[in-house]
Design goal:
Blueprint (H helix, E strand, L loop, with lengths): L5 E3 L21 E4 L6 E5 L5 E5 L6 E4 L13 E7 L2 E6 L2 E5 L9 E6 L7 E5 L3 E6 L3 E5 L5 E5 L4 E5 L3 E6 L5 E6 L1
Antiparallel strand pairs: 1-8, 2-3, 3-4, 4-5, 5-6, 6-7, 7-8, 9-16, 10-15, 11-14, 11-16, 12-13, 12-15
Length: 183
């Protein structure tokens, strides 16, 4: 099980919350070893404050091992690493995440960003500071290299200044495409 920086790919935005700071938390779990418990890890920053889990469950599965009695033992999370269409994905709770290191770079000029059949968020990286113009999307969000939200918008064509190493999240219906122009 390899914990690296991940970005969420199945972010759903509630109605009426466009252009808000909703979705400002996009990075996935970091990990911390639990002293005295070899093979057990504490995931932090993964949609909840912290989640202890057993990383020895399997090569691709980590399961939560601590159940706090809260009426039927709810909120137990598993970490499931799987390959889908050649991409590694991490499923945690109701989130699907991909390694940030696998996010494709945008090139200078016109870039077509296709939303796949599953309708997951499409991520792109802006390798060096540039002005980006996006069109054809339903929503978009721009994050700095630390995945802190710096700008966002809806379906209208928009232009924003992206810093070095910025991440762009493109939302759209399954099978649609957006155009990102990098200048």
């Amino acid at each position: 099980m390899d914990f690296q920086d991940y970005v969420r790919t199945n972010i759903l935005q509630p109605l009426g919350m466009r252009n808000s700071n909703y979705l400002s938390e996009v990075s996935a779990p970091g990990k911390v070893a639990l002293p005295g418990l070899p093979g057990y890890l504490l995931a932090k920053g993964a949609l909840v404050e912290s989640v202890p889990f057993d990383a020895t469950t399997g090569d691709t599965l980590g399961t939560m091992f601590l159940e706090i009695p809260l009426g039927f033992g709810r909120d137990l999370y598993d970490f499931d690493f799987a390959m889908q269409g050649g991409d590694e994905l991490l499923s945690f709770s109701s989130s699907i995440l991909r390694p940030a290191s696998t996010v494709p770079d945008l090139g200078r000029g016109d870039n077509s960003v296709a939303v796949g059949a599953a309708g997951l968020v499409e991520w792109r990286k802006v390798p060096s500071a540039a002005r980006v113009t996006i069109s054809g999307q339903s929503d978009w969000k721009l994050f700095d290299s630390d995945l802190s939200l710096i700008d966002s918008g809806g379906a209208a064509t928009a232009t924003s200044q992206a810093p070095d190493g910025a991440y762009l999240a493109v939302f759209g219906p399954a099978g649609s495409a957006a155009t990102v122009v990098v200048e």
